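--- STAGE predict ---
source: upstream dedup step, 1 unique chain passed
mode: sequence only
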Amino acid sequence: MTRVGLLEVRLALHGVGSLKEKRGIIKSLLERTRNRFHVAVSEVGSQDAWGTADLGMAAVSGDAVLLQGLMQKVVRFIESEGRAVIVDYRVEIL
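--- STAGE serialize ---
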């Protein structure tokens, strides 16, 4: 059976002084996440707010446990980057 893993992440970006600076940080984070984990990822909210970003990610697999583990790895990766702090996140496996 096909499973879809969804991850929603709210980030706090400290010390960001402009939308241009924020977009540079988010663009880099999205590209590295996409390349490392082969997930679909996009900024899905708070595009006009300097200090926050809402990201959405999705992956497809036949194994729900694999998807859960993948989403947790993505969360740890984002935390380890140090450019943003995860304020909240939610994982859902459909």
